[in-house]
Amino acid sequence: MASTSLIFDPPEFPQNFPYKAQSYVVAGTAKEGQTPHLRNPVWSELPAPGRTDFKPTTTHEIFEAGLQRSATRMCLGIRPRLAPDAKANTPASNEVKYADHYVWETYEQVNKRKLDLGSAIEGLFRSGKAGGGELPTVGIWSINRPEWQIIDQALAVYSRVTVSLYDTLGPTVVEYVLNHSEASMAFVTQENLPRLIALGPRCPKLRVIVSIDDLSEGATRVAQAWAKEYRLELYTMKQLEVMGAQTRYPVNPPKPHDLATICYTSGTTSVPKGVLLTHYNLTSGVYAFSLGLPWHEGAMLSYLPLSHIYERINELSTFLLGAGIGFFTGDPLRLIEDAQVLKPRFFPCVPRVVNRLALGIQQAAAAPGIRGALVRKALEVKKRNYETTSATTHKFWDALVFRKVQAILGGQVLIMTCGSAPVDPETLTLLRISMGCDVIEGWGMTENCAAGTRIHPKDTTAGGTVGFPHPCNEVKLVDVPSMNYTSKDVPNPRGELCARGPCVFKGYYKDPKNTAEALDSEGWLHSGDIAELDSQGRLKIIDRIKNIMKLSQGEYVALEKIEQTYSSHPLIAQLYVHGDSLQSYLLGVLVPELPTLADLISKTLRVHVAADDVQKLQEYLANPKVQATIQNALNAQAKHHKLKGFECVKKVHVTLEPFTVENDMLTPTFKLRRRDVYARYKKILDDMYKEGAGETTKL
Does the keyword Ligase apply (predicted)? Predict the structure, then answer.
């Protein structure tokens, strides 16, 4: 369809990469209260899409680039589900089973389906059956599967706007997103079809529902009758593809700055915010992700939610390179099995997956006898080799020991990327040397297409940092006086991390207040993350404004809100809740109300202790039964207030020393000095996390 070549061959990082100065300082940009602007040290020219070396400027053209490169090669693949063995009548024979191979659609086949489906959608909009909202929005409520990408590309080629629907944030979120985005049409899996039809009376703009799955004759009859009751049109995706093949409307490809998607992010507010991302935003992120990662053969494994921007950019980057996307079965417990069947070259992941892989390797190293000794020796040699040469492979030890470890993910992984939250540097090193591949960590958010910064794969000292700016944006640190972070801090500048460039979003849909808070008048995105710029030009995330932070599995937690929730319990006089981005749960430091504590101890141990007998109270706090009773009281409080699992304080340290202005743990207005409380109890909190690190896993 494209008249010119859109094929892009990503350049590799140069041999003389400036490891000692990894951020390019833009001359003349230094101002009081902020650092100078910082850009990518190799590709510092902004913007990128549309230049002679990178022509795609829309997601439609990203797919066209892959089509031009790999027309007859694999594009989207699945493991077919096998029919039960009708002859065997055993529990095992009724288990869900999948083929030991992937079945693929080529780029040409996907392109035809995209055009057929897009034409049918165009027909529905032209006829007036769909449309009527402020924007031509269409929802997708589905797990990762080939149809998700086919729908997204069908919408793009006719300049529609994709809206991801998901209910992990609560049962009312789908309804909210449909109404907020004014989506007149939505695609849905059979599993959620009844729930979507039931929303019809509460979603006045919704007029057309499309089942991604085929329906039986009986299910079709029931669903259509129910949908008709709510004045909804119901189709299957296959029906639309047939309609589009029969009546082909001229395509209407988007322009670079047309809106591509409204990506709803959980953020930290009571309702999701609709992040407005244009085609130019997305292609800028794709350009950045692809640099230094030249791979055109094989596939990536799709399992991270496509409703999140990180996976969207990963899969668009795969299209750009003309490679394949193999989708997991939908069962997280089969993820390792899926990887072993697919044998991906590219494996995007999040800290939860990284930590489980690393834990399995650590358990192998801790095994008794010669087996454990071999693993430990192999790790020792490869780590030393990596730290001196940056090599992640070793012919002897990979063949003897790590071949089996690498086979966990199919044995052909070249690149792993990790986003969402920080990962312990030692864990990343362990993964690199055991998996024998590059593991790249970075920083980003929905509002900048997940493409803020990244580390260099050969920088062996980058652990703990998020690296240097991606070439689709420039960054700076802005002073936060209220938290004592400034651009003049010694030895390293510190401040709020801000980004500006072609990957930065256009605002929050129908939300001028939050848009104004996030985007300033010069187009800078204020991330809310506090970063430090080290002596080598690398950024490190060290804090979060407003005491909102992200746990290792990606959940945002508002620490002050959680403290307030617990503090209504009569046992609690003061509470400090602590979270670590490398951990999946929260800890607490609790100052009790002494009369309540005395009563709790008396009832638990059937002894008498006075509220003013501090010495006795302190002694009884060491009793495991007392500790368990206190934790049970906290658990009951969390349950009563319906805190989510990740918002609950899993362990607490009880101290009889109050937080006061005099001991520097309270401000003059009696607010917690969080950094000072943490400094006082750092060792105790660190030890509590170590005590809780007894998790085991099977790989």
Answer: yes
Is 0.85 topped by the overall pTM?
Answer: no
Token pair of 555, please?
Answer: 């959940």
* CB contact set of 200 (below 8 Å; sequence gap of 6+): 206, 227, 230, 231, 232
The count of structural domains within the chain is 2
Beta bridge partners of 277: 261
Q: Is residue 16 part of a domain?
A: no
Q: How far apart are CA 42 and CA 14, in angstroms?
A: 8
Report residue 318: phi and psi, to 5°. -65, -40
Q: Considering the domain boundaries, does residue 433 fall inside one?
A: no
Residue among 138, 184, 183 nearest 161 (CA)? 138
The tokens of 313 are what? 């950019």
Tally of CB atoms within 10 A around 568: 10
Q: Are 234 and 255 in contact (CB under 8 A)?
A: no
Within a domain: residue 604? yes
- The Cα–Cα gap between 523 and 507 comes to 10
CA 500 to chain centre: 21
- In the chain, what's the furthest Cα-to-Cα distance? 87
- Residue closest to 464 by CA, chosen among 379, 390, 539, 357: 539
647 residue type, one letter: E
Q: Tell me, what amino acid is at 603?
A: K
pLDDT for 443 equals: 95
Bridge partners, residue 274, by sequence: 264
Residue 539 in contact with residue 533, Cβ under 8 Å?
A: yes
Contact 62, 56 (CB under 8 A): yes
**Three-state DSSP state, 416:** strand
**327 and 78 Cβ atoms separated by less than 8 Å:** yes
Residue 495 lies in a domain: no
In this predicted model, what pLDDT tens digit does every residue of 99-125 receive, in sequence order?
Answer: 999 999 999 999 999 999 999 999 999
347 φ/ψ angles, rounded to the nearest 5 degrees: -130, 90
Residue with tokens 């055991």: 434
Does residue 580 sit in helix, strand or coil?
Answer: coil
Of 500, 457, 507, the C-alpha closest to 476 is: 500
CA–CA distance from 514 to each of 179, 470, 509, 525 (Å)? 19, 25, 10, 11
Beta partners for residue 665, in sequence order: none
DSSP-assigned beta bridge partners for residue 591: 574
Residue at which a domain ends, from 281, 309, 325 = 325
pLDDT digits over 419-462, tens only? 766 777 888 999 999 999 999 999 999 999 999 999 999 999 99
State yes or no: pLDDT of 558 exceeds 80.
no
Beta pairing class for 161-164 and 474-478: unpaired
Per the CB < 8 A criterion, the answer to whether 496 and 478 are in contact is yes
Calpha distance 649→642 (Å, rounded): 13
Give CA separation, 326 vs 221, 315, 354, 463, in Å.
33, 10, 20, 30
Structure confidence by residue, pLDDT tens digits, 476-526: 999 998 778 999 999 999 999 999 999 999 999 999 999 999 999 999 999
**Cα dihedral 163→168→169→171 (10° resolution):** 90
Q: What is the pLDDT of residues 125-151, one digit of tens each?
A: 999 999 999 999 999 999 999 999 999
Using DSSP, state whether 626 is helix, strand or coil. Answer: helix
Q: What are phi and psi of 293, to 5 degrees?
A: -125, 60
Amino acid identity of 488?
Answer: K
Range of the domain at 207: 59-79+104-254+296-325
- The predicted model gives 154-159 an average pLDDT of 98
Domain stop point among 309, 325, 341: 325
CATH number, domain containing residue 662:
3.30.300.30
State how far the Cα of 650 lies from the Cα of 639, in Å rounded to an integer: 13
**Cβ-contact 310, 304 below 8 angstroms:** yes
